[in-house]
Amino acid sequence: MVWGYLSEFWDAITQEVVESGVYTIDWFQSLGNAVAGAIGGLFENLIHHLYDIFYIFNWLFDNLADLFLSIFSPLKWIFSFLKGFWISATAPPVEPEVVYQTAGQVKDIFEAVPYWQYFSMAIGIGLSILVLGFIFKRLANF
């Protein structure tokens, strides 16, 4: 470990200082560079491991957020739909800006056909049955 290296380094320095008794500028510069390099290596290693731990937590929480958003998105859709439905159901009806009117001659033609209301209802029911039959046929093919 780096701490063990620093203690061995310090023991070697103190032993050399005691034995030699000479302290030159080069000796102090090399001593300072060695200590700075050892301490810098210690903190670089520590910062690297802390960054890795931070990165793992960042990845974990990012994926957990995506997971919760995926899980709760159907509930969010349902509540948004119910809220919109409730607001539109309780709101007063909106008057249409444009009212489509048929010409009087066309209206007279349809009113001249006897039992036109019943015929139009029968045509609507028939078309609805055809559409339902088509839907059930498509579902049966799956």
Structure description:
The chain is built from 4 helices and no strands. With about 140 residues, it is mainly α. Helix 1 runs antiparallel to helix 2. It has helices spanning about 1-20, 25-90, 105-110, 115-140. The two termini are about 65 Å apart. The radius of gyration is 43 Å and the shape is rod-shaped.
User: Which bin fits the share of residues in helices?
Assistant: over 70%
Overall mean pLDDT stands at 83
Radius of gyration based on Cα positions: 43 Å
Amount of beta strand: under 5%
How would you classify the helix and strand content by structural class? Answer: mainly alpha
User: Main beta sheet, described?
Assistant: none
First-last Cα distance: 66 Å
Q: What ranges have pLDDT less than 50 throughout 5 or more consecutive residues?
A: none
Query: Please, how many helices?
Result: 4
Q: Report the strand count.
A: 0
Indicate how many domains the architecture comprises: 2
Question: How do the SSEs run, as a string of H and E?
Answer: HHHH
Shape: rod-shaped
Concise structural overview:
The protein has 142 residues and is mainly alpha-helical.
